[in-house]
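task queued by scheduler; priority normal; single chain, no ligands, no partner chains; default sampling; output format set to structure tokens
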Amino acid sequence: MQSSAATNERNVILLAGIGRFGAHFFELMFPTLAVTLASDTGAPIERVLGWSFLGYLMFGLGAVPFGILAERIGARVLIISGIFGMGIFAIGAGESNHGTALAICFAGMGLFASIHYPVGTAFISRSFASPGRALAINGIFGNLAIALTPVAVAALCDRVGWRTTFGMVGYTACALAVACAFLRIDEIPGERRDLAAMQRRAPAARSANLFVLLLAAAALAGIAYRGSTLIHPAYFGERVSSLSFGATTSLVYLLGIGGQYLAGMLADRHDLRWLYFGFHAVSLPALIGMAAVAEVPLVVLASLFVFFSLGMQPIEDSLVAHVTPQRWRVSAYGLKYSLTLGVGSLAVWIVDWATAHRDLSFAILCLAGVLFLQLAVIAIFLSLSWGREFRNTDDAADTRSTLAAI
């Protein structure tokens, strides 16, 4: 019985992890492919990046409805369908002409990728009485995808071209989906969890106004993050000569991943509000500096920006837990991710406009302006919550580890 339960938990982690890896892979694949696409098609880089708008929009908008659908048909079916759907549309992208057809295929990939944030996290949470370690492993799958995708995709493009790259990735995803269908998984209902312990983790300070401000800050952060992921491969290709743009992008994200672990430790010791402000305050000058440097200094500043802009995630998610009641927690996270990823897709148009008028360095300064607005929103959040403390408490240890992994 214990062995059967252990096997079930292992299969849940494996399925959710593959879905998480795939979602991040497809999320970061296009900005790397865009460099090759622009060269092959003769289209300016800003137009090529513009083809990704619908994909990133659907990546955000699908989070809430897929979370609701998972309650009706189950997480396992949706996660497998998401992996298979991403594969099918990737195959279609490899067979399509550039422009509108490619944009539609990327929209399909974004829609199926959106399954894995809300559904995969909820799947793990329901399958484990103490899901923190499992969610940490799930986070590692995502972090690996962030670091490996640029260099892997760039290497494939160099050898076989963008069409075959899409095809190879697509067929691999479809094969993984079929293999995952053979994983034996018992979708453990939420009633088996220790609900009494969960109820004890009540937020210290709930406020609709604070939640709205936090959503606004998260949405602005989504624009800055999405814009930077779009710009990095092409920008590194222009300004870093010692490494390929794919290898440089992977190196930057690999160095930056450690920010989440630092934030997870700090979130257990300090006021979350000031950590949230501090992480973004440090990332702003790093982003501004990226517009003026090249070579090694650019890699250092880009890594610093990614370190703090990615690192703030467990802090941000902890703050959501503090300003929302337990019964609305899943919906609150779904709404936050939907706004972060959906509104973040506007970065495509910001980058398009900025590069059309000047260049990629100007686009980076525009994103810095967005980040400055976010700091202003966080400052308002701080002023409205003055006199309170937002800290993770000892009786919410599982919640802390869970948030740090997301």
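post-processing summary
- The domain at 202-406 is CATH 1.20.1250.20 (Growth Hormone; Chain: A;).
- Residues 132-180 form the longest helix (49 residues).
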